[in-house]
Amino acid sequence: MVEKKNIVERYNLPPEVKFCKKCTISNQRPRISFDEEGVCSACRFAEYKNTKIDWNEREKELIELCKKYRRNDGSHDVVVPSSGGKDSAFTAHQLKYKYGMNPLTVTWAPHLYTDIGFKNLQSLSHVGGVDNVLFTPNGKVHRKLTKLSFEIIGDPFQPFIYGQVNVPLQIAVTHKIPLVMYGENSEAEYGGNMKNAFSPTRNYKDDITNFQFSGLNPEDLASHGISSKDMHAYLKPPVEELDKNKTEIHMLGYYMKWTPQENYYYAVENTGLTANPERSEGTYSKYASLDDKTDGFHYYLAFIKFGIGRAIQDSAHEIRDGHLTREEGVRLVQKYDGEFPQKYFKVFLEYCDITEEFFWEVIDSWRSPHLWEKVNGEWKLKHQIS
Q1: Which residues of 37-47 are buried (b: 16+ CB within 10 A; e: fewer)?
Q2: Which of 17, 156, 335, 361 could form a disulfide with 383 if both were Cys (CB 3.0 to 4.6 A apart)?
Q3: What DSSP line would sit under 97-111, residue for residue?
Q4: What is the pLDDT of residues 340-376, one digit of tens each?
Q5: Is-contact 107 134, C-beta < 8 A?
Q6: Chain-centre distance of CA 235, in angstroms?
Q7: 235 touches 94 (CB < 8 A)
Q8: What is the pLDDT of residues 228-283, one digit of tens each?
C-alpha cells in the first residue's frame, strides 16, 4: 500500500484555492505569492520587466560581463546548460554570435529521448554551430532513481533536474570555465521565491542543493540502496572546487527580456529547432519540453499535486507576455489542462518497471482532499478556473 501524502503540509499550501486575477496560475504553486489585489508574484514581475527595466542598460552589463570572461585562444569561456530546446539554444547562439563568446553547451541526457528531441540537440551543433557535450548517466541507476522519485517525491523528472543542474558545474570546474550562463530565473518567471528576481546571479552555495520543489536531495535518495559512487554525477562539485574555479552562475533573463515564444522563433531560424507536428498532451503548445518521453508525467504529477497542469503553466506565461488574453487562456486551460499523457504511458511503466495498478496507487497518494473529490466514482478538481 502506497503511503498517503499530506500535500498541504509538505508544500505549505494555502487551504483555500485562489486563481490570479491576471493570469491562470493558482496559489497552489509552491512558493508563489498573491498580493492584496489577487495578482500573483509572477505577473507583478512581468509588469516590472515591461515597465521598469532599461534593457539597453542591462545589455551593457552583459557586454561588460562577456568582456570580463571572453577568451581569445579558442578555448571555451562560458558553460551553457542545454537540452537542445528553444531557451538554451537561444542562450548559446546569442552568446556566441552576438556577443562573441565561445560557449560549451552541456546536456544531461533525457530519460528517454524523443526523436524530435534528439534531432533538435543535433541541430544545435550542426545548424546552430555551437559546441556540445552530451552526458548520459548510468541507465540502471537513473531508472531506479526515477521510480523512487515518482513514488517518494511525486515527480519522476527530479533525477534529470539534479543532473542538468549539477553536471554543467562539474564540467565548468573540470575545464576551468568560471562563467555558467542559464536562461531564465524560473522562480521569478513562473512564480516562486523572488529573492533572486532582481539579481543577475545565483549563489551555488545554497541554491543548487536546495531543490525546493521536491524537498529531497540526491543524498536522501542514496539511502535506498544506491551507492555514493553511483550518485556522483547527480551532485554538485564541492564548494571548495567551485570557489577555486571562481565560478559565477548568471541568468541571461536578467540581461535581456525573456520571452519563450520569441526564443522559439529565434531557435527555428538560427539553430534548426523543430516543433512537434501535434500539440503536446496536456496543453495546446507544440514547441516546449519536447526532449523526453517522460515529460508528460512530470506535468501530470504537478496537476495531481497542485491542480496546476501543463496548459496552466503555458498559458500563464503567454498571458504575461501579451500573447494571450486571460479569457483565451482560461478556455485553453478548460480544454487541455490535466489531459493524461497516454502516448508514452506503457513506455513509462516499462522504464520504471512498475505495474499500471502501482502507478495509479502512487497517483492517488498525491491527491489532496482540499483539491480533489470523487464524483460518481471519478476524481474531479473541486476548484475550476473561470
Answers
A1: eebbbbbbbbe
A2: 17
A3: HTS---EEEEEEPPS
A4: 999 999 999 999 999 999 999 999 999 999 999 999 9
A5: yes
A6: 18
A7: no
A8: 888 889 888 999 999 999 999 999 999 999 999 999 999 999 999 999 889 999 99
The span from the CA of 194 to the CA of 160, in Å, is 24
CA–CA–CA angle 55, 256, 93 (5° rounding): 140
- The three grid cell numbers given for residue 227, joined into one nine-digit string: 551507492
The number of beta carbons lying within 10 Å of the beta carbon of residue 29 is: 25
What's the rounded Cα separation, in Å, for the pair 19 and 34? 9
Domain 62-255: which CATH number of 2.30.40, 3.40.50, 1.10.1740, 2.40.50: 3.40.50
Residue 289 φ/ψ region, left for φ over 0, alpha for ψ in the -120 to 50 degree band, beta for the rest: left
**What does the block give as the cell for 115?**
526523436
Q: Which of 359, 358, 366 is nearest to 344 (CA)?
A: 359
The answer to whether the predicted template modeling score (pTM) of the entire model surpasses 0.85 is yes
C-alpha cell at position 215: 524537498
- Angle between helix axes 310-320 and 260-271 (nearest 10 degrees) is 90
> Phi then psi for 182, rounded to 5 degrees?
-90, 175
Listed in order, the ranges of the chain carrying CATH 3.40.50 are: 62-255
**Can you tell me the distance from the alpha carbon of 351 to that of 110, in angstroms, rounded to the nearest whole number?**
12
Look up residue 16 and give its three cell numbers.
Answer: 483555500
Burial of 183 (0-12, 13-18, 19+ CB in 10 A): buried
